[in-house]
Amino acid sequence: HVQLVESGGGSVQVGGSLRLSCVASGYTASRYCMGWFRQAPGKEREGVAAIDSVGNTDYAESVKGRFTISQDKGKNILYLEMNDLKPEDTAMYYCAADLAYWGRGTQVTVS
């Protein structure tokens, strides 16, 4: 049974930082392309960052230089380090594996 569980969201002031975590169980996260997505109210879900099985990363233009995706392969945990947060980063953040498995999300609010 594949399960992804996000945590680490919260409310933060503009310019602040948060680190999101996504714990994967039921399979080996490092074998798949893992990604972070977000969805703000009234908007479509968008990709934020991704990391493949060999560690290549990719970021949305809006977060480049501010967000960093990484993973602890031994613990099957995916991270998203978010710095210099802006109000437009406010959204529900989801982690996904190969776009086939999704977590339930963690809310990030920047004000």
Layout of SSEs?
Blueprint: E1 3-7, E2 10-12, E3 18-25, E4 34-39, E5 46-51, E6 57-59, E7 67-72, E8 77-82, E9 91-97, E10 101-102, E11 106-110
Parallel strand pairs: 2-11
Antiparallel strand pairs: 1-3, 3-8, 4-5, 4-9, 5-6, 7-8, 9-10, 9-11
Q: Would you give an account of this structure?
A:
It is built from no helices and 11 strands. A hairpin with a 5-residue loop joins strand 5 (46-51) and strand 6. The chain is globular. The termini are far apart. It is 0% helix and 51% strand. The protein has 111 residues and is mainly β.
Largest sheet: 7 strands, mixed
SSE pattern, N- to C-terminal: EEEEEEEEEEE
Percent helix: under 10%
Mean pLDDT, nearest integer? 94
Structural class, please?
mainly beta
As a whole number of angstroms, the C-alpha radius of gyration is 13 Å
Oligomeric organization of the protein chains: single chain
Distance between the termini: 37 Å
Query: What is the approximate shape?
Result: globular
Percentage beta strand: over 45%
Low-pLDDT parts are none
Number of helical segments with 4 or more residues = 0
Q: How many beta strands in the DSSP annotation?
A: 11
Output the keywords.
111 residues; mainly beta; seven-stranded mixed beta sheet; four-stranded antiparallel beta sheet; 51% strand
Summarize it:
By secondary structure, this protein is mainly beta.
